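Sanity check record (used in CI):
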Amino acid sequence: MYKLINKDGNAKRGEFKTVHGTIQTPVFMNVGTAAAIKGAVSTMDLHEIKTQVELSNTYHLHVRPGDKVIKQLGGLHKFMVWDKPILTDSGGFQVFSLAKLRKIKEEGVYFNSHIDGRKIFMGPEESMQIQSHLASTIAMAFDECPPHPATREYMQNSVDRTTRWLKRCKIEMNRLNSLDDTINKNQMLFGINQGGTFEDIRIEHAKKISDLELDGYALGGLAVGESHEEMYHIIEKTIPYLPLEKPTYLMGVGTPENILEAVERGVDFFDCVYPARNGRHGHAYTNKGKMNLLNAKYELDSGPIEENCGCPACKHYSRAYIRHLLKAKEMLGLRLLVMHNLYFYNTMMEEIRDAIEKNCYQEYKKVKLEGFKEYNSKS
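Expected output for Queuine tRNA-ribosyltransferase:
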């Protein structure tokens, strides 16, 4: 159940009630692909860094350890010891990005596992069954993530198939939620809007899937090679055709700048590997931009990554010490940077929610973007 608290322009401040707790939106979901945040970050840590939603990957968990194993162990929440909402993606993106050999048919996709090469089939019903075994809070519909660029004909055929698959997902999800042995009988389903950078295909698809009255709607197939301007344009043109009273989710995006721009256009949910991945490569996100702690100028720097930051890294450790850990290839350095970056993202989302409530989002966004300019990626 989504409740719109305030609108500031097109920016939305809402609450999304789920069986695993209420999500304050806009929200950034912290990515734990294989039921863990890369960088040795535990679910206890996630509470400390203000995580609201954890995102896990259907395909990876199906391949290892196996969704049936997780079901036998009580579902993903129990397995990874996490009591807040979890969103599982459908596995569609991984099927299309990882599988070198694949055949797309009306029933689904035939492909080989990227781990051991074994043949796997996944279609809408299989994806829903796997996600039901995982017992996540929110399940994503199984869709095709078309390549970029793609011809108009390919894109239209792909989107039409995704629509047919979505209807099958909804039927199967309703069936699974009615079974006695289903762990989470209140599992929600989000549909995915596709269409690449074809504005009219996006809009028509948004209208069609809105009629299905799902729990939420995502924009997929963006940040796959198009320019930021193209992405913002598609978001701006498509969101008005998705239900205002349901959450919208921009999949796999992005940088702090991307998030600020997309919130302005009406997006509620975000996820991206950037904060964790960049942390593992020695980069820290700050209100002055992204800094590279491997740089020699931090060798004797006794200050925190960022003044007045409440994350576990900044509360206790210096830039010099974290730089030493990175240079010595000690895992603690990566862990501290990942925690800092996720804390930075989660705190920024708090600020965004506050600004929308106070009807000063434009001013907040302008100040935030201006601040990022002080450092550059080589700082």
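The first strand starts at residue 2 and ends at 8. If this sentence no longer matches the regenerated tokens, the check is flagged for review.
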